[in-house]
Amino acid sequence: MVLALVSTAAVVVALRLDKEAELPPGIPPQPAAISLDPQIDPVAATAPAPTPAGVSQAIAPALRNPALGVLSGMISDSLTGEVLWSRNPTRPRIPASNDKVLSAAAFLEAMPHDARLTTTVVAGSNGQVILKGAGDPTLTAQPADADTFYSEPARIADLAEQIKQAGIPVTSVAVDLSVFSGSTMDRTWDRRDIQGGDIAPIESLMVDGGRLEPLDEYSPRSATPGIMAGEALAAALGVDAPVSEASAPAGDRVVAKVESAPLVTRVNDMLRYSDNVLAETLSVELSVHRGGPATLAAGVDAIGQVLSTTFPDQWKGTTLADASGISYANRTTPALLDAVMTAASGASHPKLRPMLDGLPIAAGTGTLADRFPVATTPGAGWVRAKTGTLTGVSSLTGIVQTIDGRVLSFALMSGGTSPADARPALDAVVGQLRECGCR
Length: 439
Prior knowledge:
alpha+beta, Beta-lactamase, 2 domains, five-stranded antiparallel sheet, five-stranded mixed sheet, D-alanyl-D-alanine carboxypeptidase, hydrolase, protease
């Protein structure tokens, strides 16, 4: 009873104190707590439009930087399509990974955005299971619930769990790589780039893009990614026997299967991280979708067929050797790159709009995470663009919202100088587009 009385008295005192003014007379009461209602503020169609003269004046100082080397480019108004500035826009240049802008446009234009790939495990004989690839390099060997490099990937761990649930006593694992045919490496690629982490042999079965370190973007890749995937399944099943290649028997003997992320998710991963392996496998997927062969060469041809139909006026001067841009044999023009970006950010090609989500954000994500430093270059957070870098080649294609709220598309292609020098010079040009009303 004593404890109850003390507690009651304490509550009464506390209530009285809460009601009493704690501030001297004349001091305003404490303001109400701020409530937040986050919303997306859409770009206004009535935002002031830049003029060609305004754009030229704004970027003129940045264009005088010798680090730009030989520069070609185009800048357009995304809303109207008006060309605001250009320099040799139809001159074919090496695009480096800006090639992926073209590839992404072809994939999104021609394939269902929700398309998925299904990796299966088929029961063989004498306790063998056969892991059959479907062309999905985002399949991961990471354990259940562990972090992954790619977004929403299928997991080897799920396949292993399904096999265990089926009660199959597994004695060995084999891999079926038959879905893809032809060469696994383009003749213009350098095999040293496998160890360098830029590419892996393109096989229909891979885990983590062939990375030896699955979370390291720049990890060396496997020279035998299909076998590596089989070894990951064997490890998950506790099987010690060597992994071999085999053909999965026909019929309904599938004992496990997993699905990839939707096409649009995989395309945006490709753009954000400039993933060469993913670009090449998606090109083969495009060819198969259009009824063509499952080869690297057919994938490149399929990209060309889609884009030459979608952008017939700008396609002239483009020849592609691969889908990723690591080949020095690729050629395209600022006119085509800018046309694709104008279409994606404007109203003419809604199928291309999702690619804007995958473009790296200046000083924020992907290959632009360490570019456009706030202290020296405008544009952080306002520029979305695909980077492209090879020795002596630097390119940048994307969109930027001006300080007045107008969205501009751009494609800049530089050559003949070190990328270490050219990249900040390109960023400076685009940064000026952000800062100017350009009217």
